[in-house]
Amino acid sequence: MYKITQLSIFLENKRGNLYNTLNLLAENSINIRALSLADTTEFGILRLVVQDPIKAKKILEEHWYIVKNTPIVGAKLDDTSGRLSSVLKILNDEEIDLEYIYAFTHEKTEKAILLLQAEDLDNLISILNAYKVPLVPSEEVYNL
Amino acid sequence: MWNEEIECMSREDIFELQLKKLQATVKRAFDKIPFYTEKYTNANVFPEDIETLKDIEKLPFLTKDDLRACYPFGMFAVDKKEIIEVHSSSGTTGKPVVSGYTQNDIDNWGEIVARGLTMMGLDADDIIQNTHGYGLFTGGFGVHYGAHRLGATIIPISTGQTRRQIEIMADFGTTCLIFTPSYGIYLGEVAKEEGIDFDNLGLKAIGFGAEMWTSEMRDRIEDTFKTKAYNIYGLTELMGPGLGIECSAQNGLHIAEDFFYPEIIDSNTGNTLPEGTHGELVLTNLERESMPVIRFRTKDLTALHYDTCECGRTLARMERITGRSDDMIKVKGVAVFPSQIEKALLNVSDIEPHYQIIVTRPDIMDEIEIKVEASESLFSDDVKEMMEVKRKISEYIQNEIGISVNVSLVAPKSIPRSTKGKIQRVIDKRNLH
Questions:
Q1: Across the interface, do A68 and B381 touch by the CB < 8 Å criterion?
Q2: Does A117 contact chain B (CB < 8 Å)?
Q3: B375: closest chain A residue by CA
Q4: Which superfamily does A4-69 belong to?
Q5: CB count in 10 Å sphere of residue B186
């Protein structure tokens, strides 16, 4: 229940590509919860957490996008200074290599949501549990 | 002129001579080589059907695949003891093609190249530095035999050892250099660095060939070496270099028509095209003992002209080769086939990715870019892994074709398709046309 389905989308690094992609989702009333973009000079990987990942993937694939479902986890943190670094310290102490992180704030609960990806996601989840870092159930993220 | 009688013969006499030689060649091939016996019998055409030169069009074409199928000696019309030398084309796309020579064939080769060297203004007093490779490749030996026939001094230095080339050029008083255009440009640059003054070196001519070239490349070569540069054309299958050589007019390559019968065809229909029309060059050996090659499709695109040249020669002239009728491309002097790229791509993905080869020449060096459409199996959520996929693709392709390439991953369906859904595999932006 804590694994959030993130969509990873291949984008060529060309003017208009990001707009076209996001516009396609907008036209199909897909709400984006969080977004991150990893890019190189030539291509990028657009990572999205959306309301309905199954529908979004289907729409994108119908338009010839390459989309992968990537499970990630979301940690719910107090939106106060120092909270993010304290979580990262735990992971550092436990020798967890993160692939990437990105974050957004949850307006209703005034919490920050930290999205994390690691090679061994199950291990990451158990460590966060052990340190009592609250995780956000995936349904909650989709339906923010 | 080396052989004025032939080189200035009236067109009528040339055609008459060619007809006689063609009839004899077809008859010999049909009688001596089972491959032709079968091929012509199946096509229901026989030596006696060749009554005019135009009747050659009744004969089926010969392709590189036909020659490969006869590997190694299946095309020989003489006993093996008559064969005194063999050469071979590179086997990049499968079995190589073997070319055999009798003593007379070698003598004729020398005669043909000697005529060409004379066209370039050379004689027995000249010193020819031959940077073409000596080996199975015909380039080195063809020039070598021609220089012997001419009585000039040949320096059989072969390719490479560039600084030594320059030293020898200066010390020996080389008057003619033979090279491929890309090696020539490189040689010229190194020579300039070494402080060679070509104004005082006394070069009389340059013979270049074995690669596609542009008039800008020729200008650059002439400008560097301060002398005229003449194109030499040839094919291992028919003989080797010398089949066509440019004269002082530099207005096309004279074909040794007493030894070769040239035709231009439409690559798609196979129909013969009239004088001056661009199409695929088809060649026939008219006097070759070892291995008569009849109606060989060269895949080289050019046009033929039969008007008398300003040099006085009546022999037909072919234009500079401007392309290939198949997908083969020459990049940095290396033959590259799309099939090689496909093979390399299958190493990284089970399903063959869509791709396109783009060749450019930003300055003098060719560059090759392979656009590969990303796919489910090539895509990963990890940038490092994606970079690794790219690196692997480049590495596999480089192993396959021997030269480095730039690989770029592009979006699916981003390479333009034709209305039939086909991708144009090769885009050559080098402006060789």
A1: yes
A2: yes
A3: A66
A4: VC0802-like (3.30.2130.10)
A5: 15
